[in-house]
Write a structure and sequence with these properties.
Blueprint (H helix, E strand, L loop, with lengths): L3 E12 L2 E12 L3 E5 L6 H9 L6 E6 L2 E2 L5 H7 L1 E3 L12 H13 L4 H6 L5 H13 L15 H14 L4 E5 L7 H17 L3 E5 L3 H7 L2 E6 L2 E6 L1 H6 L1 H7 L8
Parallel strand pairs: 3-8, 3-9, 6-7, 7-8
Antiparallel strand pairs: 1-2, 1-4, 4-5, 9-10
Helix pairs in contact: 3-5, 3-6, 6-7
The chain binds adenosine-5'-triphosphate.
The site of adenosine-5'-triphosphate has 11 residues, from strand 2 and helix 1.
GO molecular function: ATP binding; ATP hydrolysis activity
Keywords: ATP-binding, Nucleotide-binding, Transport
Protein name: ABC transporter ATP-binding protein
Length: 256
């Protein structure tokens, strides 16, 4: 197994008297796709927000490439390679698809050129090539000059992924990426994520309600219930685990 690029070690998060995440370990091997699933209220979002830096845990550590990042802000973690998408789309309605990608790239690679971005200057040839390449790999060339406000949800989600990838992350955290997508759009998203993993030094973490997407896409899946890990393994192992099936009774159906 490849060394872990990201780890949560013994993470506990309390909200008043409620223990939302209880001493959870979560390991993301390099270049892997790992799913985080569980019934409603299991603690998935809380763990996700703790990894990305929006929640500080009561106990435990988040470790990126062997270095603790637990006390760093979400922005500082992003600069070190943890990128994320949001469940509710957070695109800028008045920026084009190309501008989203360019902005993200400049924040990461050329912060000194942000002023030019605001003033509307054109990209340098190498920059244009990189942006064009990324747009093309996600099938977004035809909509590159459309404003985000005019895009259907399925395309908007791909723009979110493109924007995250433009920052060249080591780990991309995806929060309910298939939410609101139809089957064709979900299939397209899955293709894009598999391609990103294949062509980059990138690990992906999915918090996702669509279990068939998770079981089809992930190398490993971790299942939380009431804030604790009840299973971790390959999609087949997790699907057949009696504890997982019991946890899902009355929630959503396990299996595809
Ligand atoms: N900010 C908060 N304040 C108080 N309780 C919270 C807060 N955020 C989450 N919780 C509680 O913590 C527990 C875990 O919630 P969390 O949102 O992490 O679960 P989840 O697995 O993401 O659920 P869902 O699938 O419904 O999104 C739940 O009992 C929830 O009500």
């Amino acid at each position: 197994m490849t060394a872990a690029v990201l780890e949560a070690r013994g993470v506990t998060v309390r909200f008043g008297g409620l223990v939302a995440v209880n001493n959870v370990d979560f390991v993301v091997p390099g270049n892997a796709i790992v799913g985080l699933v569980g019934p409603n209220g299991a603690g998935k979002t809380t763990l996700f927000e703790t990894i990305s830096g929006f929640i500080t845990p009561n106990a435990g550590d988040i470790v990126l490439g062997g270095e603790p990042v637990t006390r760093l802000s979400p922005q500082a973690r992003a600069r070190r390679g943890i990128s994320r998408t949001f469940q509710r789309m957070e695109l800028f309605p008045e920026l084009t698809v190309r501008q989203h990608v360019l902005l993200s790239r400049r924040v990461t690679h050329r912060p000194s050129r942000l002023r030019e971005f605001v003033l509307g200057s054109y990209e340098a040839p190498a920059e244009r090539e990189a942006v064009d390449g990324l747009l093309s790999s996600l099938g977004l060339t035809d909509v590159a000059d459309r404003y985000a406000a005019t895009l259907p949800l399925g395309v908007g989600r791909l723009v979110e992924v493109a924007r995250s990838l433009a920052a060249d992350p080591r780990v991309l955290l995806l929060d309910e990426p298939s939410s609101g997508l139809d089957e064709t759009e979900t299939d397209r998203l899955a293709e894009v994520l598999l391609d990103a993993r294949k062509t980059r030094e990138l690990a992906l973490v999915l918090v996702e309600h669509n279990l068939s997407l998770v079981l089809g896409l992930c190398d490993e899946v971790q299942v939380l219930d009431f804030g604790e890990t009840i299973a971790r393994g390959t999609p087949a192992e997790v699907r057949d685990d009696p504890r997982v099936q019991a946890a899902y009774i009355g929630d959503v159906e396990v299996g595809a």
